[in-house]
Amino acid sequence: QVQLVESGGGLVQAGGSLRLSCAASGIAFSSNIMGWYRQAPGKQREEVARIEGGGSTTYTDSVKGRFTISRDNAKNTLYLQMNSLKPEDTAVYYCNGFTPFIRREYWGQGTLVTVSS
Q1: CA quadruple 63, 112, 54, 46: dihedral sign
Q2: 106-115 tens-digit pLDDT
């Protein structure tokens, strides 16, 4: 059974930091492209950052220089370090895993990040 379990969300003031974690089980974690998505109220879900098995990363423009995605393949865990948070970063953040060779996608249940001004 595949499980992606996010943690680390919460309430933080603008300019603050949070670190999200995603513990994965039931998948070949190191073979997966892992990512963080977010969905703000009334908006579509968007990709925030992605990291491939070898460590190459991509970020959406609005978080470049502020967020860092990383992975620990030994611990089957994905991270998102979020610094200099802004109110517009407020959203539910979702962990995503994609296994390319079987083209299967997985989602966590989401963790809420609220940034107050």
Answers
A1: negative
A2: 999 999 999 9
